């Protein structure tokens, strides 16, 4: 059952793709994305296939997003409700999303080599990278890397191995198995804001 | 109850000042240099006056305090690693006299849990240690009420100093050294903050939790063996860790010293933040900085602590509050004393 629920409640997000066809008019894409955000989806990437306009003159758009399985169903329903042409939804569910931070001399240790090494060894795809190097290229910097993978545990151990080879620290998300199928509903006290 | 308080730091002193309110009498208070002993109750104001003058707490020797006519020994000396001395010997001496012990010192339960349990078996005294995990938060008594065998995992924020530093860094975009200095000025961090920021303190608390959870599976196995002597090899219980005890050496520990502001920034852009999280799960103990949802249950701010219990039948429980401080920790000590008193009464 939901034994991959997050400690903070709610299920762990999975990556999904939806294929939409939009009219080639200003604002079309934005209104198509709105139901995704409104229903708790997290956009991973948007591929606007301007080069392959359909015979009906519409533009195919492939949207990758992160959501819980329940959330994804709601999103697809909301898209259709909003009149968006959903051509394909969820058929390419390719795994779970894993976000990690790598900390250290990222530039000196060839970040792009690190990334390709992750993709190769972990059988994962890197869908997003953000780098923050406030001290320029020679100081300590942080990269936030979003991976989509079928096997999170394996990907995580590959990340740790690759990082330790290059002397980098890893900060991984806290995702632990919950014992039972419950979530935030059983919190006796969620003292968060003191 | 008559209390002998060993250790006159913030916790020992707070126990002395609160004990009368709880109906207890402190008959001895010692620090490393001396002791004040009075079977009618130590005059705590006199002790404070002496320590303010830089004198020992009293004229007697610390050793004499251990022989005082007390019901409960409150062990509040600083936590030591390795063989947990001198705390462990204080506990053993009390148990040898069939006296109860309440620990605020983490050393004996984190480093010598097995020795402690066997010393307790040969004594009419009991050892309680609520104050060792997350100060005022009733983590261990909640686990005892639930039944440790029903608790499958524990995780949480167990060090207020590290949490203060991470939450200030995230909120202000300041670097580690800057916030650490600020924390020291505010008295949130000690002059030597090593154990707080390198994860050792949180790890000791997790090790204690791991010992308590593993103890439950051992107790199960003992009961099974007693019930049916034929089932001699059936000692492996659900937890799979029966008979095991943990020390800090079994914990995988990382601290927060290497977390740069840029890491907190990138985490925040993604709706997350970083907290020093301790976990006990599947027989493993782990402490390190982790990504957690910003504003989520575990992302407590400032010096707050939170303990999250994963239970077999009741889902997830979260208890948050103050995890350190003299009166806060003394509250947990006095709760243990109260438990011992009601057991004696019943």
Radius of gyration of chain A: 19 Å
What level of helicity do the residues of chain A show?
25-40%
The unreliable regions of chain B are 224-242
Helix-strand sequence of chain A: EHEEHEEHEEHE
Distance between the termini of chain A: 34 Å
Number of helices of chain A: 4
How do you describe this structure in short?
By secondary structure, chain A is of the alpha+beta class. Chain A has four helices and eight strands. Chain B is built from 13 helices and twelve strands.
Features:
heterodimer, A: 194 residues, alpha+beta, Alpha-Beta Plaits, 2 domains, 8-stranded antiparallel β-sheet, 4 helices, elongated, disordered N terminus, disordered C terminus, B: 346 residues, alpha/beta, Rossmann fold, Dihydrodipicolinate Reductase, domain 2, 6-stranded mixed β-sheet, 13 helices, 12 strands, globular
What does this structure look like?
The complex is a heterodimer of chains A (194) and B (346). Chain A is α+β, with helices and mostly antiparallel strands and 194 residues long. Chain A folds into two domains: 76 residues, 2-Layer Sandwich (Alpha-Beta Plaits), CATH 3.30.70; 75 residues, 2-Layer Sandwich (Alpha-Beta Plaits), CATH 3.30.70. Helices cover 26% and strands 32% of the residues of chain A. Chain A has four helices and eight strands. In chain A, strands 1, 2, 3, 4, 5, 6, 7 and 8 form an eight-stranded antiparallel beta sheet that branches. In chain A, helix 1 packs antiparallel against helix 2. Chain B is α/β, with parallel strands linked by helices. Chain B has two domains: 153 residues, NAD(P)-binding Rossmann-like Domain (Rossmann fold, 3-Layer(aba) Sandwich), CATH 3.40.50.720; 184 residues, Dihydrodipicolinate Reductase, domain 2 (2-Layer Sandwich), CATH 3.30.360.10. Helices cover 40% and strands 20% of the residues of chain B. A six-stranded mixed beta sheet of chain B has the order 3-2-1-4-5-6, sandwiched between helices. Chain B has a six-stranded mixed beta sheet with strand order 8-10-9-7-11-12. In chain B, helix 1 packs across helix 13 and helix 8 packs across helix 9. The radius of gyration of chain B is 21 Å and the shape is globular. About 5% of the residues of chain B have low confidence. The chains are: A alpha+beta (194), B alpha/beta (346).
């Amino acid at each position: 059952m939901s034994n991959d629920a997050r400690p903070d409640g709610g299920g762990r997000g999975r990556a999904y793709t939806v294929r939409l066809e939009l009219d080639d008019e200003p604002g079309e894409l934005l209104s198509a994305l709105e139901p995704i955000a409104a229903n708790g989806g997290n956009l991973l990437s948007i591929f606007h296939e301007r080069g392959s306009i359909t015979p009906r003159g519409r533009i195919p758009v492939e949207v990758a997003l992160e959501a819980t399985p329940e959330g994804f169903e709601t999103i697809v329903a909301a898209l259709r409700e909003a009149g968006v042409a959903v051509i394909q939804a969820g058929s390419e569910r390719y795994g779970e999303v894993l976000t990690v931070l790598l900390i250290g001399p990222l530039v000196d240790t060839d970040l792009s080599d690190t990334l390709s090494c992750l993709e190769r060894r972990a059988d994962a795809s890197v869908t997003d990278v953000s780098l923050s190097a406030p001290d320029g290229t020679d100081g300590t910097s942080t990269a936030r890397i979003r991976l989509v993978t079928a096997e999170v545990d394996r990907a995580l151990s590959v990340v740790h191995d690759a990082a330790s080879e290059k002397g980098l620290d890893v900060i991984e998300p806290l995702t632990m198995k919950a014992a039972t199928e419950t979530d935030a509903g059983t919190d006796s006290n969620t003292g968060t804001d003191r | 109850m008559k209390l002998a308080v060993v250790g006159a730091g913030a916790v020992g002193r707070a126990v002395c000042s609160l004990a009368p309110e709880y109906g207890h009498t402190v008959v001895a208070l010692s620090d490393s240099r001396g002791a004040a002993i009075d079977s009618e109750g130590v005059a705590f104001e006199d002790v404070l006056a002496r320590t303010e003058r830089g004198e020992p707490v009293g004229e007697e020797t610390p050793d004499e305090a251990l022989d005082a006519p007390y019901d409960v020994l409150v062990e509040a000396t600083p936590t030591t690693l390795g063989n947990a001395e001198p705390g462990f010997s204080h506990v053993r001496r009390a148990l040898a006299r069939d006296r109860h012990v309440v620990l605020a010192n983490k050393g004996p339960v984190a480093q010598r849990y097995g020795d402690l349990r066997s010393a307790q078996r040969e004594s009419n005294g009991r050892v309680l240690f609520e104050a060792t995990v997350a100060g005022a938060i009733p983590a261990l008594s909640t686990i005892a009420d639930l039944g440790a065998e029903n608790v499958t995992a524990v995780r949480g924020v167990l060090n207020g100093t590290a949490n203060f530093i991470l939450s200030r860094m995230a909120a202000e975009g300041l670097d580690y050294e800057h916030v650490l200095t600020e924390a020291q000025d505010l008295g949130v961090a000690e002059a030597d903050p090593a154990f707080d920021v390198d994860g050792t303190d949180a790890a000791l608390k997790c090790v204690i939790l791991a010992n308590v959870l593993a103890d439950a599976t051992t107790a199960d196995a003992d009961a099974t063996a007693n019930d049916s002597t034929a089932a001699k090899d059936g000692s492996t219980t659900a937890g799979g860790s029966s008979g095991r005890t943990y020390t800090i050496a079994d914990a995988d520990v990382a601290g927060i010293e290497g977390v740069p502001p840029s890491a907190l920034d990138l985490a925040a852009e993604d709706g997350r933040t970083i907290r020093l999280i301790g976990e006990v799960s599947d027989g493993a103990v782990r402490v390190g900085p982790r990504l957690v949802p910003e504003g989520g249950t575990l992302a407590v701010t400032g010096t707050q602590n939170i303990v999250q219990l994963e239970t077999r039948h009741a889902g997830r429980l979260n208890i948050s509050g103050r995890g350190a401080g003299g009166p806060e920790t003394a509250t947990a000590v006095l709760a243990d004393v109260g438990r011992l008193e009601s057991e004696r009464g019943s």
